[in-house]
Amino acid sequence: MITHFNELKLQTVSIEAVKQFYHGRLGFTIEYESRNEIRFKLTDHATISFEEAYEPISPAHFAFEVPISQFGAAISCLQDKGISFLAWPDGRVIDEFETGKNVYFKDCDGNLAELIAHYYVNEDVIAPSGIIPILYLREIGFAVTKVNTFREKLVHILGLRLDKVFDDFTFAIGGTAHAVITSTQRRWVPINMLALPPKMIVHLGASTSQFICTVQAKLDGMGQPYHKQSDDCIAFSIDGYRFQLSRKSAYSEETLSLLNLPS
């Protein structure tokens, strides 16, 4: 099964600006840095990285899960670092919904970042990381022209389950990983930002080598090309989005169960 997002790799127009924002303001530890690439540690099991690209960049959407008990402290920490939150049309910046709370902000490349916290998540299972207490990388947005086609492929290939299934929006979920699938005709809240397909590589953690073999067999059956990087790692694309699937034992099925995530 898919257990988590292991890494999100995005493009940037400035490594230095990314460094100032994610390291200088958000306090993320730098794991690797070169002239045109930088990688930050989010948690013990997740990273976000940027590669400089001499081309226009479509902004991505992603969300970090934080403990509900530390949500207010995380907001204050970001404000102290000079982060401005994006307002909804009615002027509020914190959205409170049935199962939790969230806020949105933009980084130096215009990516739409989100802090989100849920009442149902058991905070005693995973230790949060960093000055912004991140539990895991929860959401990555996928803007597509045909939501139903893309989500069906994620279900078939990766065994993800669906939630909030609409014609123009769907969650496809595996473990702590939530793929937010939205139509390019539906804008990102709270600022009605155009949903453009970003260039990115999404690294997924798999529970077992057998699961990776199962994914390979499904790709073979579809005639979908893939690159086998090792016995425990394959790379492939789905409708223009690039994925890498590796066996990562970050979260066992027992751990995921203890987190009290919705089934």
Rg, alpha carbons: 18 Å
The helix/strand order is: EHEEEEHEEEEHEEEEHEEEH
| Oligomeric state of the chains in view | single chain
Mean pLDDT reading: 96
The count of strands amounts to 16
What is the makeup of the main sheet?
A: 8 strands, mixed
Q: How helical, in percent, are the residues?
A: 10-25%
The end-to-end span amounts to: 14 Å
Indicate the proportion of strand residues. Answer: 35-45%
Please give the count of helices: 5
> What is the overall silhouette?
globular
- Uncertain stretches: none
What class, by secondary structure content? alpha+beta
The largest beta-sheet arranges its strands as: 2-3-4-1-13-16-15-14
Short description:
It contains five helices and 16 strands. Helix content is 20%, strand content 39%.
Task: Tag the structure with descriptive keywords.
alpha+beta, eight-stranded mixed β-sheet, 263 residues, 39% strand
Describe this structure in words.
The mean pLDDT is 96. The chain has an eight-stranded mixed beta sheet with strand order 2-3-4-1-13-16-15-14, with helices on one face. The protein is globular, with a radius of gyration of 18 Å. β15 and β16 (241-247) form a beta hairpin. It has five helices and 16 strands. With 263 residues, the chain is α+β, with helices and mostly antiparallel strands. It starts with a strand and ends in a 5-residue tail after the last helix.
